[in-house]
């Protein structure tokens, strides 16, 4: 009996990098999803196939046998094996599992692809093994998988993939679900430039140490922008939200995490009448987002693609991880 589950991607609307220093961030689940199908195996092995990445392999105990994907196969699939093993341990069933992953989320672009896949894996395998895992359990399993990938992740990505919606996050207070008035029509532009989140976090840390009297006030202003955005989201004022996005992007440039590929796409979107545009995630490549009037979405997509990016429309979703019928 095959079971399929899916979980959403995310964008950071406000607060990336500043959140590391205790400032608030606003994160939004979007309608791009990772889909995972799971089935029982009689040989007690764990078989994982990522169709999009062209990677597959089998875990037999602690041994791994690569089928496709070369040397990167094990490291890419290991966090998903961790998630599957944790569900198997909770079920106390002595079986194997096959999972197949098909995703509409760009990989390594700051959209939370790995967390979405992990949440969908845990949910699909849980249902397959007759477990009704509550959302908090899905989050913890996804977080453990993310720890293998990122070391000490904030927990933003697995939280959004599990619960959906719009979340306000603070390092010292955790997450609160936000109420948002109206839609948040976005265009996402992928520079297709790969980058290292760790290197970019280190860049901000270095700049903060070099110029503390300048950079630390900027970090505080980033937090004030996020809190102002909370008020604006509750009223549904898209024009004000766009202005705050533009200011936030200026701060991210000031702390050193934008680059030429992002600037091309951000300014192309603004010239095409986007209400606001900024990088999302770590920066240094990856993705940007543009807040756009509904009747201008196609126009902004075209502008970003003419500037060299891969663009697509995205909308907020309140649905987190779910079983697919």
Q: How far apart, in Å, are the first and last alpha carbons? A: 13 Å
Question: So what's the CATH class of the largest domain?
Answer: Alpha Beta
**Which structural category do the helix and sheet elements fall into?**
alpha+beta
CATH architecture of the largest domain: 2-Layer Sandwich
H-E order: EEEEEHEHHHEEEHHHHEEHEE
How large, in whole angstroms, is the Cα Rg?
A: 20 Å
Tally of DSSP β-strands: 13
Number of helices: 9
Q: Which topology of the largest domain does CATH recognise?
A: Ribosomal Protein S5, domain 2
Flag low-confidence runs: none
Largest sheet: 9 strands, mixed
Shape: globular
Quaternary form: single chain
What percent of the residues sit in helical stretches (DSSP H or I)? 40-55%
The percent range for strand residues is 25-35%
Could you say how many structural domains there are in total? 2
Average pLDDT over all residues: 94
Describe the structure.
The protein is α+β, with helices and mostly antiparallel strands and 325 residues long. It folds into 2 domains: 3-178, Ribosomal Protein S5, domain 2 (2-Layer Sandwich), CATH 3.30.230; 186-314, 2-Layer Sandwich (Alpha-Beta Plaits), CATH 3.30.70. It has 9 helices and 13 strands. The strands form 2 sheets. Strands 1, 2, 3, 4, 5, 6, 7, 8 and 13 form a 9-stranded mixed sheet that branches. Strand 4 (55-60) and strand 5 form a beta hairpin. Helix 3 (135-150) packs antiparallel against helix 4 (156-163) and helix 5 packs across helix 6 (212-235). The longest helix is centred in the C-terminal third of the chain and has 24 residues, at 212-235. It is globular and about 60 Å long.
């Amino acid at each position: 009996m095959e079971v399929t589950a899916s979980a959403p991607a995310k964008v950071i609307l406000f607060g990336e990098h500043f959140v590391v220093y205790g400032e608030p961030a606003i994160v939004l689940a979007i309608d791009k999803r990772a889909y995972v199908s799971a089935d029982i195996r009689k040989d007690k092995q764990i078989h994982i196939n990522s169709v999009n990445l062209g990677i597959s392999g089998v875990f037999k105990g602690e041994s791994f046998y690569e089928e496709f994907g070369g040397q990167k196969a094990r490291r890419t699939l290991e966090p998903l094996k961790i998630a599957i093993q944790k569900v198997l341990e909770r079920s106390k069933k002595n079986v194997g599992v096959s999972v197949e992953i098909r995703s509409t989320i760009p990989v390594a672009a700051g959209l939370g692809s790995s967390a979405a896949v992990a949440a969908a894996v845990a949910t699909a395998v849980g249902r397959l093994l007759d477990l009704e895992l509550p959302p908090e359990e899905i989050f913890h399993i996804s977080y453990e998988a993310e720890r293998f990938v990122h070391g000490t992740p904030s927990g933003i990505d697995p939280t959004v993939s599990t619960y959906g919606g719009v979340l306000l996050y603070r390092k010292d207070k955790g997450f609160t679900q936000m109420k948002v008035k109206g839609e948040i029509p976005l265009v996402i532009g992928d520079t297709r430039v790969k980058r290292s989140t760790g290197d970019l976090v280190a860049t901000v840390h270095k700049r903060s140490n070099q110029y503390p009297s300048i950079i630390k006030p900027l970090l505080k202003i980033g937090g004030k922008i996020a809190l102002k955005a909370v008020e604006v989201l509750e009223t549904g004022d898209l024009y004000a939200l766009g202005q705050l996005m533009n200011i936030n992007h200026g701060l991210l440039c000031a702390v050193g995490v934008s680059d030429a590929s992002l600037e091309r796409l951000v300014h192309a979107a603004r010239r095409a009448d986007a209400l606001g545009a900024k990088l999302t995630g770590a920066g240094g490549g990856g993705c940007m987002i543009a807040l756009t009037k509904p009747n201008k979405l196609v126009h902004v997509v075209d502008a970003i693609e003419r500037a060299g990016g891969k663009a697509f429309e995205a909308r907020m979703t309140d649905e987190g991880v779910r079983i697919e019928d």
